[in-house]
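Incident log, support desk, overnight shift.

02:14 A customer reports that sequence design results differ from what the structure should imply. Their input is reproduced verbatim below. On-call engineer (initials T.W.) acknowledged and began investigating.
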């Protein structure tokens, strides 16, 4: 253990006291000299030139505090109260107790009064153990005093960069709860960019401070990624947070950390918690313990107080339980949820009559005999069977409702009331949705806004009017199924949802026509060149024929004349042949030019079509985004989790993934040929 010698500390405090009396405030030169003296006295290397602004901000020109801060920094990573110093005191006290026990055994109960009877070895051993214990106690006293100065200085600190640097030292109490929220969050932002090993203690410390929900979720995400040692025991404030987002993220991180010592934290998190956060805590508790107390906080508390310590001591790390099966959690199209407050929102537009297709990587739909029972069924038929199966598996303490949508939205029970999952209600639900047939277009967001109405608080009037089979519970989870893109919102068409794909196809056709026109142009130019070459050859043959005719006329005998006339005839024949080639190439060139013009006209038409489709696509995207933002705004206060199931190739993959991701749900695609 790094020891603090008392003499340098006394000299340091004396020197600082004199300096403090000489001047209450220091200039930079004096401050630099004081820091340097402290560094030399403590014998620790440090880059104090880089830290002067931080020291000045901390100490407010107070010499004594500034130098003791330096003193603490030098030792912060080596000796911390409660980590090394306090155990050292305990160890030294135990060593002294052993010596005293031996003395009492030898000299009797009044052993100390009989000191004159001790041997020299006994005196030496006793004084050595006693001095070690007193020195260790003194170290603790000094450390606590330094920590007090630090905490006092941090309370006045307004520099986020300085606070971030200080937090990295890991000194206890540096990030005080009295610091302002914006300052703490600025400090967190700085820490998250640093190497994990340097800042993990500081981030865990910040998670025990009053951060905003957004900042707490960021810090928890970091913890889940880097998994610092013993982090699970430092998340109590997050598990018991009033923010559902923070609580759910904390439970998710605890599942990743897989440290079952956090069970008492989870039990406390269950107190006064309802809805999906409570269901997720219940699921994790049952996964860790195998106990089935549902969301009954008193029952969990009683179990922990009577059996918890024994259970923890006998823990088998390899043992795991199926929490969803135990808690009544269900699965729909392979997406599992512990929620017991669910709305099912299913597409029944005309495209749902298409045959159901499944890939091997998709969530399979199988009958009890293990065969693929989706064969020969439509997408809607398969969806109904999957829905019936999920509803039948709901626990008796669960609540649910069902919405089907096409051009209109059809609900089983009017919002905001949802029904308990009794045997009677399950049967009535299937009786209601099984006859529904696919037809018309897709008003997805109208259906989603309708589903959000089931998250509203049930009024006293509605409670008074409610039937026995309809309860006042509110949903926290939505399962959304769609096989196409939204086409309508609030009785207004969104436009052509496939305009973008059509635009891409039109652009491809335009590019193909342009390429064909370029090819025809090249062929026409080649034919023109060949025609010109044939024309030149014809003219050369004509000149040669005329020369031969002239030689024939000038010939002095019949044989020579006959030879020149034959040569002239041959050249005239060549000329005619070349002339015929020229005409043929001219005709080909004209044909290629006509084809070029036709392809260029097609390209112009396709380009105009592409521009029109692109404008329609932009308009559709803008209207779709407006519809999505309306849903997102409506869900911003309700915080309903949406799990998205895309059925078939035509569903809007980007949209469905976005809905699931931004609401904290999951996405799965089936039937993607």
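02:41 Re-run completed on a clean worker. Output:
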């Amino acid at each position: 253990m790094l020891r603090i010698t008392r003499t340098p500390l006394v000299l340091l405090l004396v020197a600082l006291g004199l300096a403090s009396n000489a001047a209450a405030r220091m200039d930079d030169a004096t401050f630099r000299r004081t820091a340097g003296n402290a560094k030399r006295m403590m014998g620790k290397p440090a880059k104090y030139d880089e830290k002067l602004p931080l020291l000045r901000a901390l100490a407010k020109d107070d010499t004594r505090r500034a130098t003791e801060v330096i003193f603490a920094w030098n030792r912060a990573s080596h000796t911390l109260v409660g980590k090394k110093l306090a155990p050292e005191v305990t160890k030294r006290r135990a060593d002294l107790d052993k010596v005293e026990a031996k003395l009492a055994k030898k000299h009797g109960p009044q052993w100390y009064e009989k000191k004159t009877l001790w041997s020299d070895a006994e005196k030496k051993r006793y004084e050595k153990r006693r001095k070690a214990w007193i020195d260790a106690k003194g170290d603790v006293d000094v450390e606590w005093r330094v920590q007090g100065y630090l905490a006092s200085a941090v309370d006045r600190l307004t520099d986020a960069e300085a606070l971030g640097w200080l937090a990295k030292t890991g000194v206890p109490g540096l990030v005080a709860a009295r610091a302002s929220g914006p300052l703490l969050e600025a400090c967190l932002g700085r820490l998250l960019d640093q190497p994990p090993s340097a800042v993990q203690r500081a981030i865990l410390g910040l998670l025990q401070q009053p951060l905003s929900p957004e900042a707490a979720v960021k810090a928890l995400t970091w913890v889940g990624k880097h998994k610092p040692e013993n982090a699970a025991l430092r998340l109590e404030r997050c598990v018991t947070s009033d923010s559902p987002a923070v609580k759910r993220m904390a439970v998710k991180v605890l599942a990743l950390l897989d440290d079952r010592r956090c069970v008492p934290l989870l039990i406390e998190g269950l107190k006064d918690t309802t809805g999906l956060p409570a269901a997720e805590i219940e699921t994790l508790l049952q996964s860790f313990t195998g106990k089935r107390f549902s969301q009954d906080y008193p029952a969990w508390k009683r179990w922990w107080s009577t059996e918890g310590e024994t259970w923890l001591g006998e823990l088998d790390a390899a043992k795991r339980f199926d929490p969803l099966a135990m808690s009544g959690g269900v699965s729909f199209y392979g997406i599992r949820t512990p929620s017991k407050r669910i709305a099912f929102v299913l597409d029944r537009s005309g495209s749902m009559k298409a045959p159901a297709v499944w890939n091997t990587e998709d969530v399979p739909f199988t009958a009890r005999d293990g065969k693929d029972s989706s064969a020969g069924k439509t997408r809607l038929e398969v969806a109904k069977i999957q829905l019936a199966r999920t509803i039948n598996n709901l626990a008796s303490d669960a609540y649910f409702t069902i919405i089907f949508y096409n051009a209109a939205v059809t609900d089983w029970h009017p919002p905001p009331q949802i029904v308990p999952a009794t045997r009677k209600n399950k049967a009535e639900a299937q009786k209601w949705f099984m006859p529904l047939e696919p037809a018309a277009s897709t008003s997805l967001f109208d259906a989603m806004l309708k589903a959000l109405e089931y998250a509203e608080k049930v009024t006293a009037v509605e409670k008074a009017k409610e039937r026995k089979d309809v309860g006042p519970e509110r949903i926290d989870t939505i399962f959304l199924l769609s096989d196409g893109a939204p086409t309508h919102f609030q009785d207004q068409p969104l436009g052509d949802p496939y305009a973008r794909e059509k635009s891409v196809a039109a652009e491809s056709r335009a590019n193909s026509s342009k390429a064909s026109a370029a090819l025809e142009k090249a062929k026409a130019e080649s034919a023109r060149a060949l025609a010109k070459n044939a024309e030149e050859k014809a003219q050369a043959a004509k000149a040669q024929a005329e020369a031969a005719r002239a030689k024939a006329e000038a010939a002095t005998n019949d044989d020579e004349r006959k030879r020149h006339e034959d040569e002239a005839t041959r050249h005239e024949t060549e000329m005619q042949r070349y002339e015929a080639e020229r005409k043929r190439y001219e005709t080909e060139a004209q044909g290629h030019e006509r084809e070029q013009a036709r392809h260029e006209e097609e390209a112009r038409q396709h380009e105009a079509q592409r521009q029109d489709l692109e404008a329609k696509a932009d308009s559709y995207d803008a209207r779709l985004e407006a519809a999505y933002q309306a849903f997102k705004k409506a869900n911003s206060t309700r915080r309903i989790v949406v799990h998205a199931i895309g059925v078939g190739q035509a569903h809007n993959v980007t949209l469905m993934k976005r809905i699931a991701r931004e609401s904290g749900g999951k996405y799965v695609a089936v039937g993607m040929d």
